[in-house]
Amino acid sequence: MQYLRRPGRGGGTAEGAGRGNALMQVGEEIAHYLRVEIQNTKELLLTTSQNADKLRDIIKRTSEMNYRLFLSRLPPVQGNNAHGHGLTNELESTGSGNQAMNIGGTAPENTRRSIICRLCYSRGACMLMLPCRHICACKSCEVILTHCPICISPKASAAAVKFV
After folding, report:
1. Residue 103 covered by a domain
2. Where do runs of H (alpha helix) occur along 73-142?
3. Suppose 129 and one of 78, 88, 113, 148 were both cysteines; which one would form an S-S bond, judging by CB atoms 3.0 to 4.6 Å apart?
4. For the segment 95-122, what is each residue's pLDDT rounded down to a tens digit?
């Protein structure tokens, strides 16, 4: 049985080889283009990553400077500690959650013990900073804190406490 050649399907071996070479050349050009694009993408990714690292560092340093500036503008309450905050010796000496100070100098059993928020100085502090365990902020101010205003340790979490 004879096989018939259809027109337009590579009539001879030379023509078929020519088309094969042309297709190989196009494939190589596409592969080269893709290699160049991959290299450009890798370089762009590296540059973007380096820029992101630089921006994170700038944000971190700016945040720390803003926090220090914020702390430096806080008004003193009673005396000053090494950080320039107005804290009583009683507060500075206690590292636990029992930091209520005696108001008015009367006998402790006759007074309601409270502590003032170290940020707004208008509400009672009821938030326990963790891990340092200082009670130093009201609920409204605690959400903006990133560091404890007493010891300046980074705040991992906070918990509401009640004085009874």
Report:
1. yes
2. 89-93, 139-142
3. 148
4. 444 444 444 444 445 455 568 898 888 8
